[in-house]
Amino acid sequence: MNADLEKKIREALANPKNLGEMPDADSIGTVGNSDCGEMLRLWVKFKDDKGKRVIDKATFQSFGCETAIAVASMATELIKGKTAEEALAMKTEDLSGGLGPLPPMKIHCAELVEGALRSALDPVNQTAAPAPVATAPATTGTNLIDSLSQEKKSGVKITFLPPAAK
Questions:
Q1: Cα 68 to Cα 9: distance, rounded to the nearest angstrom
Q2: At what angle do helices 66-78 and 3-14 cross, to 10 degrees?
Q3: Over the stretch 41-94, which tens digit does the pLDDT of each residue have?
Q4: 65 catalytic, yes or no?
Q5: Model's pTM, two decimal places?
């Protein structure tokens, strides 16, 4: 990785945007990469803006490398105000925003974020009831690893990305 990218990633990690669970989310997407063990969950809340349903807020949790966290932080800012269709039209390189082009060995980090976004904005997920899908009750203090290991009755699906071509 070049020094400029490393600096931008450090800056994003020093002040990550939109980190954490969103109990009142309208939709949640969860993806994992079996090759590297990374997992990312993305919560999305919509609002009505002049008759259009747009993304009001997005948050994330990640078990992943610094690049995945930085890209998720950038992406949650970039998708605000977009419709689901507009957000889904964004390419992997768009989601990394101001980080700039990622080296080939780090592209999977942006693909992880894109996969979580696609999972969250999948019309099947959007029809599910928001509160039960998001997390267990707040009093249990669950986190991403706890919620992934609990049995789900609400239809949350975990999508594992295909192995990267080597």
A1: 9
A2: 70
A3: 999 999 999 999 999 999 999 987 899 999 999 999 999 999 999 999 999 889
A4: no
A5: 0.73
